[in-house]
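seq:
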Amino acid sequence: MAVVKFSVAVLLLIICPALPAEDRPDYELRDMDGKLHRASDHRGQWLVINFWATWCAPCIAEMPELEKFFQENQPKAQVWGVSFEDSDKKLILDFVEKLGVTYPILGYGQDPLTGFGEVRVLPTTFIVDPEGLFFRRFEGPINARDIVEAIE
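struct:
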């Protein structure tokens, strides 16, 4: 089912062009505990939004790098991990705990693309600048240095 949702989402995003940054609605998702997170709550900070899945080997490989960036760049920057699957909630929680991930994991049981933009591959990482505008997109795995170089 998750593969079908992903395929339909990708097809729709290819057909529909992404909105310019200033026309995008505020991006919001709930975390694994149901707490609502809004991109607008992070104005004044860099926001790194990473789309990932437990079945995605490159996603798994980059998660320690995202955690490193998160730990070394607070409060200047925030990281969100957006789960792109419908797996069992406990499986996702156990998975991120095993990897030592402490940044918020969002999107469980929701459409992670609602109000966001184009995600063609996993992992995909978007950087939102302190003004709330989309600044950069990375497709494929990244490391902490890539993010630091992008925002400096």
